[in-house]
Amino acid sequence: MQLPTAFVAYSARAGLRTDRDDLAMVVSRRKCQAAGLFTRSRFAGPSVLISRQRLAGGDARGVVVVASNANVATGAQGHDDAVAVAEQAGRAAGIEPHEMLIASTGVIGRRYPMDLLGAHLSSVDPSTFTTTIDGFARAIMTTDTVPKTAERSVGESRLVGVAKGVGMIEPHLATMLAFVFTDAQIAGPELRRAWRDAVAVSFNALSVDGDSSTSDTAVVFANGAAGPVDMDLFGKQLADLCLDLTRQLARDGEGATKLLVVTTTGARDDDQARRVAKSILNSPLVKAAVHGADPNWGRVAMAIGKCEADTDIEPDRVTIRFGALELYPTPPGRAELDRLRTIMEAEEVHIAVDLGVAAGSATTYGCDLSAEYVRINADYTT
Amino acid sequence: MQLPTAFVAYSARAGLRTDRDDLAMVVSRRKCQAAGLFTRSRFAGPSVLISRQRLAGGDARGVVVVASNANVATGAQGHDDAVAVAEQAGRAAGIEPHEMLIASTGVIGRRYPMDLLGAHLSSVDPSTFTTTIDGFARAIMTTDTVPKTAERSVGESRLVGVAKGVGMIEPHLATMLAFVFTDAQIAGPELRRAWRDAVAVSFNALSVDGDSSTSDTAVVFANGAAGPVDMDLFGKQLADLCLDLTRQLARDGEGATKLLVVTTTGARDDDQARRVAKSILNSPLVKAAVHGADPNWGRVAMAIGKCEADTDIEPDRVTIRFGALELYPTPPGRAELDRLRTIMEAEEVHIAVDLGVAAGSATTYGCDLSAEYVRINADYTT
User: Fold this and answer.
1) Residue B322, strand partner residues
2) Do the Cβ atoms of B380 and A295 come within 8 Å?
3) What is the 3-state secondary structure (H, E, C) of chain A?
4) B373: nearest CA partner in chain A
């Protein structure tokens, strides 16, 4: 997939892992606007802290990603290491060292192998930068099984997005690693607003396992090479692109065999709708039932019920549907059991709940829980 | 295990399931004090609503349990069914119909087979009541693999407890089904206070999967047959008995191979300590790592970090230990790796976190996450 005008990418194996690339960059050849959202974790890593600070400065026009080592909980030395990697990467990419953001993903609690990274970054060949995103998309993967990219366009300008992350995922106001590059010309405040709005309905509606990473980073870069755009149209395309990536992340959730989409309507407000939808989406019992294609709507009722602070939820005003088929209060007749089986066995399962309170709504994205999730995570570091 | 003086038990197969008993009662032959705590679920079943109401009346002296059908989300008819079962059971046990509590556990969303229950309850033979708890403990099991009972004594009086529940377990101010019977003589208000205190440090510190049942019920009955007791001593024994049952429940968590105990110290207050401990205890990534005996303390850091509202948590004041061995900030040396392996491979894994803020503390109980959990729950209803 071609990057928008004046963006270039790099990916290579610095030696952190032996089987594939582990170091990747995208930079803009022009000055750039950028907006970012990050994990709120109290154990946020130095990559997050440094990138957040640099974005506040306003000059960011590239990002370097180190894959397979999160560089989290590594103390003051870990912070200095991240600054050094970002600055070396900036020089290697031909931009000002302070214009380079950094993101990192992988095992927590181990220092970067600075000798490997330093040796590699000091010998980057500028001619190996490409105008495609695919090598970058593959290099940033950890337990991902497929690279995740998406593109949209608005007038003359293009948007290209890339994301990774299939475990330790329930972003709070950000996601794992997600980057969008566009050649649209957009002022900083407008870009930040559009980013916040797009992330709210996409990456923030995603949960693979209810665990929130220490490294979540989502940044959009706009270098203006294609000139100004209609902001309404741009906002819609940006949100749509992010939702595309979100669905790709959910579908590739660790061990996942199905995409699970949970929608709540009729809530007091959108916050309540999101809380109820997330409670269903994150319930291991609901997720296991979806895995087994078991139309166990009682567990959906359970997951609604455990939102116990929401005292305006009344069982006799609630409706539960799988696909378009009502399960509660009126269970399907025998004639509809084939249809129910088809719904449950599909690769994409939709659960819809109406609370019958007011007009709040939310849609969230996740996946089923399989034995494979346990196998993947039972011996990750050893 | 013998019940305390003047309690008798009953268990039988009414036909809700073909392989074992599904109906059980315990009643006091004397008038009784009782105190109860129940699920806060918005989808609480009629058994919970009826028992809560009867306890408020103050005359409860027995409980009937229907196993394999939760009778939840069954509408007004489900409520009438539960009242009818409780009253028939009361008459069968020789107490006033309104003195019988009811608890129910199993699949959500199906009505009781009232013909089977009615036929059985109208022909209960009074001579088949026993003075032991063991039949009752087995009859109330669903996916439990072992019955769970415990006993303690205070002076002349005895306490006998029984519990069930291995999935859909993160009780909020109550647990699945847990009952304690004692012949100590205790006034109602004192009994309620002792019960609240005991449950807070035991059943409320338990989580198998973060899912809260619609049927959680915990009741203590005190019939006074053994005369008055020292309340301090009684409270300690009661809490100790409940903790014993809690550990049995956690150890038998669906698919569990290990008991996981998470302790937080140095918190701002006990609430913060409990929040952080539960975040670790419920993290599927931590649970999977414990399953694989993987000393992945980075996931513990992640689970602490996602308590993002706790802005007084600072990574550089946190200590993480597995067993008594520090992993963060100072990782163990090579000489200690054997000891670490022994800790991780034990049947009981302890994770201890100190936040370095103040003196709040909490201990919580759970289990590892295994592929078996998924298998058990992928096709429960079908």
Assistant:
1) B325, B351
2) no
3) CECCCCEEEEEECCCCCCCCCCEEEEEECCCCEEEEEECCCCCCCHHHHHHHHHHHHCCCCEEEEEEEECCCCCHHHHHHHHHHHHHHHHHHHCCCHHHEEEEEEEECCCCCCHHHHHHHHCCCCHHHCECECHHHHHHCCCCCCCCEEEEEEECCEEEEEEEECCCCCCCCCCCCEEEEEECCECCHHHHHHHHHHHHHCCHHHECCCCCCCCCCEEEEEECCCCCECCHHHHHHHHHHHHHHHHHHHHHCCCCCCCEEEEEEEEECCHHHHHHHHHHHHHCHHHHHHHHCCCCCHHHHHHHHHCCCCCCCCCHHHCEEEECCEEEECCCCCHHHHHHHHHHHHCCEEEEEEECCCCCEEEEEEEECCCHHHHHHHHCCCC
4) A371
Q: What distance in Å separates residue A306's CA from the closest CA in chain B? A: 5
Q: In what side-by-side order are the strands of the sheet with B148-154?
A: B33-38, B217-222, B177-182, B157-164, B148-154
Among A214, A292, A303, the residue with its CB nearest the CB of B378 is A292
- Yes or no, beta carbons of B381 and A168 under 8 Å apart: no
Residues A22, A16 contacting (CB under 8 angstroms): yes
Q: Which amino acid is at A26?
A: V
- In this structure, are strands B259-267 and B319-322 parallel, antiparallel, or unpaired? unpaired
Q: What is the pTM of this model?
A: 0.83
Flag whether pLDDT at B174 surpasses 50. no
pLDDT given at position A174: 40
B175 counts as catalytic:
yes
Lowest pLDDT segment from A87-101, B192-206, B316-330:
B192-206
Asked, as a colleague might, if the bond just before A329 is cis with ω within 30 of 0, I would say yes
Contacts of B295 in chain A (CB under 8 A): 381-382
CA distance A260 to B271: 33
A302-346 tens-digit pLDDT: 899 888 889 999 999 999 999 999 999 999 999 999 999 999 999
Take residue A68 and report the two structure tokens written for it. Answer: 């397979």
pLDDT of residue B309: 85
pLDDT band at A374 (very low <50, low <70, confident <90, very high): confident
Q: Which residues contact A141 (CB under 8 A, 6 or more apart)?
A: A20, A67, A147, A164
Whether A57 contacts A167, CB under 8 Å: no
Characterize the bridge pairing of strands A177-182 and A217-222.
parallel
Q: How far is C-alpha A167 from the geometric centre of its chain's CA atoms? A: 10
Structure tokens at B378: 């992928």
Mean pLDDT of A103-129: 93
- Contacting residues of A for B382, CB less than 8 Å apart: 292-296
pLDDT digits (tens, 9 = 90+) for B190-203: 999 999 999 888 88
The Cα of A31 is separated from the nearest Cα of chain B by a number of Å equal to 34
R_g of chain A, CA atoms, integer Å: 22
pLDDT at A145: 87
> In the numeric block, which tokens belong to residue B78?
């489900």
Q: Show Cβ contacts of residue B364 under 8 Å, excluding neighbours closer than 6 positions.
A: B205, B206, B207, B261, B262, B263, B274, B277, B278, B281
**Residues B41 and A306: beta-carbon distance below 8 Å:** yes
Chain B hits for A343, CB-CB cut-off 8 Å, are none
For residue A204 the two structure tokens come to 């923030």
pLDDT, tens digit, for every residue of B344-367? 999 999 999 999 999 999 999 999
Segments in chain B forming alpha helices (H)? 46-57, 75-93, 114-121, 134-139, 188-201, 231-251, 270-282, 284-291, 297-305, 337-345, 371-378
N-terminal to C-terminal alpha carbon distance within chain A = 36
Asked whether the beta carbons of residue B373 and residue A295 sit closer than 8 angstroms, the reply is: no
Residue A321: phi and psi, rounded to 5, are -125, 140
